[in-house]
Amino acid sequence: MSAAPRISVILPAYDVAPYVAQTITSLSEQDWPDLELIAVDDGSTDDTQTVLDHALAQFRRSGPGRRAKLVTQDNGGLGAARNAGLAQATGGLILFADGDDLLDAGAIPALAHALEAEPRCCLVFPRCRYIDEDGAPMGLESGRRDARLSAADLLFENPIHTDTGVLLRREALDRAGPFDPHLPSAVGLDAWMRVASGQGACILQVPYALVSYRRRSRQITGDWRRQRDGWEAVAQRARSTKVIGRVASIRARSRAMLVWAAGAYDRGDRAALRSLVLGALARDPLVVLGSDHGRLKLVAAAASLLPQPVERALSAWYLRRSQQDAGAKVRKRR
To answer: Glycosyltransferase 2-like domain location, by residue (predicted)?
Structure first.
């Protein structure tokens, strides 16, 4: 029986002192015989480096075959931090983790065995559940995707809601090239699309929620304009390289506009909410009208034009309906 391959975990960290020790503890609890952790402090301004020093020492003592290294650098962003970590990684398999997410016990073996079972597969990722800033469940899980995914699938409806838990073969990542340090967001999406564009590439979801994805205000995903700018850059690259055609690109942008509209709503930017929803509707009405997600955004946009008492009532309904819809999805997937 061959030895288990070494897995290198790349963990960029920027101002995540309250969370990163929990993330590393969740990695320490994984039952894998050869696990290497490369943490990159990307110029944090809080106590992240001090927390990392202590947590990495505990990781090394958590079992045999454990090694860890801390890389420090000036703030260069997520792409630069991941590239710095990869430069130090020695494993044949690479796992990515964000400094505020949590992996379930058994997540790494489940992902590694899924990748091993599909020799032609180059990347696997798990479903995730959402938790709030304090770690409380939000009653929402990412959807289940049974089919193999293409680069176009990733752009249209990125099912990899968080890069924590993405596991891939090192050679596939080397072929795809380094992370783009200049992207303001969608750094992972860009890389995974390039991996998926390789000849014979196979990307699969492990159909279990193995990661707790923490939503908090300071994340990149909390800034819809930054999300938009990164997505637009990735989409332009996909169009120029013929990864996605014109019609599929229009549909993908329509759906992305609904995601940005949700961010605008959360920020209280009603004018942007209306503009984004109407833009999505103009590009592809079916994307908006054909899903609960789209119809709810349309109601929110319409309500923003009404007198405040009416808008508050409709907004309260919108939030209840969104939560009920999320809860129903979770129950259905169990």
So the answer is: 8-175
Helix (H) or strand (E) holding 168: strand 167-169
CB distance 2 to 87 below 8 Å: no
Name all domains of the chain by residue range, CATH numbers in brackets.
7-221 (3.90.550.10), 245-333 (no CATH)
Instruction: Summarize pLDDT for 225-234 with one digit per residue, the tens.
Output: 999 999 999 9
Give the Cα separation of 2 and 101 in Å (integer).
31
At residue 260, the 3 state secondary structure works out as: helix
Please check whether residue 137 is in contact with residue 129, taking contact to mean a CB–CB distance below 8 angstroms: yes
Q: What is the mean pLDDT of each run of 10 residues along the chain (334 residues)?
A: 88 98 98 97 98 98 96 98 98 98 98 94 96 93 89 90 97 95 96 87 93 84 88 94 88 93 88 95 93 84 82 69 54 46
State the pTM of this model. Answer: 0.89
